[in-house]
Amino acid sequence: MLRLIAYLFAAVSIIHSTRSNGANEFQVSEDDERIVISSPTLDAVVRKKGYVTGVAAGSFLDKKSGFRDAGYGLDIVDWIMEPGSDEAYRDQLKGDLAYRFNNSYHGKTAKRSIEGPQICTKARELSPRVVQGKDFVAVTSSFKYQIAAPEKKTGSEWSQVLVFPAGQRYFISSDKITSVNASDAMFLRLDMPGHIKHKQGDTFSEVYLSYAGKIPSSEFVRDFAPDEKFNYRRDANPAPKRFIRAYHLHDPETGREGPWLAGMTLDPSVVYEAWCHQRGYVCLIEEFGGRPIQAGESFSAAFIVGFFDSIEEMEKVYDHYAGHTGLEVGEQGWKLTRSVR
Description:
This protein is mainly β. 8% of the residues lie in helices and 45% in strands. The chain has one domain (68-337): Beta-galactosidase, Chain A, domain 5.
């Protein structure tokens, strides 16, 4: 019986390992539900079913400090959207496409979904693929949107690449939309780095926004709308030299300060709008794109997501990778790319 159980487990679990000069080693286990990545510097899980996209909530572990992410996941993906109201045809919208504004959740700015559903909650199942090289592990995912607003087509493709470089406490990611629709200002909404679960600011001591500075956790005790404060808009704010958003982890039980968990958009010009507001948790939504696009064209953004001991360390890493908007990977290696549009 034990031999049979071991055989069945082996049938649904695939183990990979990667070594680099004997110093860095990845262990990757995979079953029907998830991909688990482990190295001497971090752990991470990519889910195949349920709440999908990006790195799963609470699974991102910094082995140097022992801290984990404090939210609902990292680089979590939603809808394809554009400016404007859907009020005139809201009763015709399928699924979760309706977008209500003039409220504390979404603020006053009119926006509408072009295609859906919200991938993280409604796709239900993805088929991510593991790619391994001599000094990295990567995971690639994709999804074709299934519902659309009136007079819009379905079938635009979202694709995501996550690269975990050996020896680092961060991963590099990119999200890309290849659209079957045209728009004057299409954008993709996602969580970057991810939301922050907390009770009266107990899991973090401060937030850092490169366009606003440091903000103490006490600012997030009461709910406020995304456009009330700490909001960034490309049409209203000067682009910062670096687009970094991070929170300083704090152990609610011991009071110990942890590292910063940062999400860094490597080309600030791609950011259309970025929220940092309180709605039961700290909501760190980012929208990128927001420029004219024709059917058949694509747009993307590239990010660094991970643990850092200081803002200075974040800036050093940011500057090393700055200016890129895409990410490509194969067994021979990975590379960041720049937009030609």
